[in-house]
Design a protein that fits this description.
The structure is a single chain. This protein is an alpha+beta fold. It has one domain. It contains four helices and three strands.
Length: 111
C-alpha cells in the first residue's frame, strides 16, 4: 500500500482545480458550467451546453472532450466552424486546434 506524504488539497471551485492540474490542453466554454447542489462534500457542475453533470474530475474530462469543444464552437464561435455541421463527429485534432484558438482569443470563461 502506497502512503501519500501529504493529503490532496480541498478545492473550492472548478477553476482552482483546473489551475492545480496544470493541463496542457485548451479549456473553453466554462461559462456554460453552473455549480449544482450536491448531497456530499464533493463539488458538482452541470454543463448547460451539453447537459452533462459531474464532480470535478468528471466535468474536467467532459470539458476537455471533443463533444463539448465541438458544441461550444458551433454555438459560440461559428466563425471557426470549417466542417459540415450536419456531420455528427469531427476529428478530435481539428476540434482541439480550434479550441486552442478560442482559448487564446477569448479565454476559458468563468463558471
Amino acid at each position: 500500500k502506497v502512503k501519500r506524504s501529504r493529503p490532496l488539497p480541498v478545492w473550492s471551485s472548478l477553476t482552482e482545480y483546473l489551475d492545480y492540474l496544470q493541463l496542457d490542453e485548451p479549456i473553453i466554454g466554462l461559462k456554460h458550467l453552473v455549480r449544482v447542489d450536491s448531497d456530499g462534500p464533493d463539488l458538482k457542475y452541470l454543463c448547460r451546453l451539453c447537459f452533462a453533470e459531474g464532480d470535478l474530475p468528471s466535468i474536467t474530462f467532459h470539458v476537455l472532450g471533443r463533444r463539448h469543444r465541438q458544441k461550444y464552437l458551433m454555438t459560440d464561435r461559428p466563425d471557426l466552424v470549417t466542417w459540415d455541421v450536419n456531420s455528427r463527429s469531427q476529428s478530435g485534432k481539428l476540434v482541439r486546434a480550434k479550441a486552442e484558438v478560442v482559448e487564446r482569443q477569448d479565454g476559458r470563461g468563468i463558471p
